[in-house]
Specification:
With about 200 residues, the chain is α/β, with parallel strands linked by helices. The chain is built from six helices and nine strands. The chain has a single domain, classed as Rossmann fold (3-Layer(aba) Sandwich), CATH 3.40.50. It is about 30% helix and about 20% strand. The strands form two sheets. The chain has a seven-stranded mixed sheet, with helices on both faces. Helix 1 runs parallel beside helix 2 and helix 5 runs parallel beside helix 6. It binds magnesium ion (MG). Magnesium ion binds next to loops.
Amino acid sequence: MAISLPIDIEQVKGFLAEDEAEALFKAASEMSARGPILEIGSYCGKSTVYLGTACKANNAVLYALDHHRGSEEHQLGEEYHDADLYDQGAGLMDTFREFRKNMRAANLEDTVVPIVAASRLASRGWATPLSMVFIDGGHSLDAAMADYQSWASHVMSGGILAIHDIFPDPDQGGQAPYTIYKLAEASGLFETLPMVNTLGLFRKI
Ligand code: MG
């Protein structure tokens, strides 16, 4: 599938394989005709560009939730730390500046609503049914569980739940996303769709 994107996606920092990006775009193109989409874990906006471009075509809104302080693996001294995204003054990661820059460059400021907050906090007063939820947040068990427990219930009937970084083999990657993937499977609330690389997909019954 050739997806026409508003910017050179290679310039956007992030961790998303091409086949996964295409699957997200395809699902979002279909789903956003029915209502808004929410992604959790925007980082610098790579998946946001794909989801947002799909939403824009349907004149739909994409909520992009991230505390923008980086996940465990992005922190100073950790494997995926990026010094460009470190706020020396605050002594904290700050990916929001880069995220905003990318949304502006991609002409998505009229489509994407950034929510700069922790997942549980953002969900506290949430009442809007979502046509699709994409979970790509922290990989600690606590973070993944918070994302699942806070947002899976907001997927509308017939909507899509997508979870990134599913590694059934522990040697391939962390197990927290796979743990919530199995929870979704066992919940009886979702039909399991074929995986795309490490992207788990469900349809809400
Ligand atoms: Mg991910």
